Amino acid sequence: MKDLPTSTQNLEEADVTIAPTLLNVPDGSNSHGYTGEIVGLAGKTAGAEKESKCSEHEFGASKDQVNIAKKNENITVSSCSSLENMHARHCNMTADKQQFNTAESDTEMARRAKEEGIVSVVFRGTVTQEGCCRFVSEILKCILYQRQQLPMTYDQLVYSQKKRQDSKADKDVVSGRQVNLADVNERKCEKTLQDLEEVLHQLEVLFSLSTVPRVLLLMGGSLVLPKEIYEINLEALVLESGDQCLRVSSCLRQLFRTLFVADLLSDSRPGRLMPTTVLVLAHRDCGVGWFHPKLRFKVPTSVKKQTIALCTDPCSCRNASTDILDWQEYVWFQAPTTIKGFCN
């Protein structure tokens, strides 16, 4: 009997080989054994061929799955890249829109300040009563400097005065005229700083005793007919206490940026020295002693008023409670000390 083909040969070769073998099978009782062996070998050959074809089919299927997975991976990467690009374009469009809105609002702010004399500063949160006093104090210092009533800012003036006092003790001998001029300038500076510091201190006392919805700064002239009027309006501010309130420093940065953009305090006319009087609207029974009540005072209407309105964004503090003022119980209080400007 010839050797049977291996499992890697095809079925046709197996048939050719088996046929001659069947013809040479000897007669007798053992012929059934040969026949069974040959049939078994043929079945094994066919099974091996079938197994080989199944393996090739499974390999092809696995290869197709790998290709599909790679395609899906490429699609996923492409989709992620597209989403990132869309997000980047959206961010750029949002930033450009914000810049455009900021520029547009700055232009509108400057226009309103020039035509109507009003600058609005909107805080996105609540503030404290102490913060309101700080706002008024810093605006007062700024107006005095911008309107050329002080030769330098308040902080620079305090530092310069302290430096002069320290260096005065180191001077030994100077001419009589130099001594007189230095003494005159020093006395003016000291008097202005003393008056300003007294007003600032008393403002803190008044703000601790009463809600202050409005403050007036009258420059030059008289109470009835001043040269310039500046109003600090605090009516629309929502007051609270605690850590949930906005920081005073951040509010001051926003305030002075707004004043700078609006250019409310600039004036091309040369400044001249004139006294500044402070009036505060407060509750009539607040118990303040230093300020003098002015029951019949009315804000002059014949002079254009420059208004700085501080307010709270209603959307940022919907849960905060707002006090309703009884305006009949509020009167004007005048500071007995006027702040006189000086120049070096």
What does the model show?
Helix 1 (11-23) runs antiparallel to helix 2 (31-115), helix 3 packs parallel to helix 6 and helix 4 packs across helix 5 (176-209). The protein has helices spanning 11-23, 31-115, 129-146, 154-168, 176-209, 248-262, and strands at 118-123, 214-219, 228-236, 275-283, 292-294, 305-312, 330-334, 339-340. Mean pLDDT is 76; it is low at 1-39 and 94-100. With 344 residues, it is an alpha+beta fold. Strand 2 (214-219) and strand 3 form a beta hairpin. Strands 1, 2, 3, 4, 5, 6, 7 and 8 form an 8-stranded mixed sheet that branches. The protein contains 6 helices and 8 strands, in the order ααβαααββαβββββ. The longest helix is centred in the N-terminal third of the chain and has 85 residues, at 31-115. The chain is 52% helix and 14% strand. It starts with 10 loop residues before the first helix and ends with a strand. It is globular.
Fraction of residues in H or I helices = 40-55%
What would the principal axes of the Cα set say about the shape?
globular
Oligomeric state of shown chains:
single chain
* N- and C-termini, Cα separation: 132 Å
Q: Number of DSSP helices?
A: 6
Evaluate the radius of gyration. 47 Å
Average pLDDT rating: 76
Q: How much of the polypeptide forms β-strand, as a percent range?
A: 5-15%
| Main sheet attributes: strand count, strand direction, barrel closure | 8 strands, mixed
Specify the structural class.
alpha+beta
Unreliable segments of 5+ consecutive residues: 1-39, 94-100
Order of helices and strands: HHEHHHEEHEEEEE
Number of strands: 8
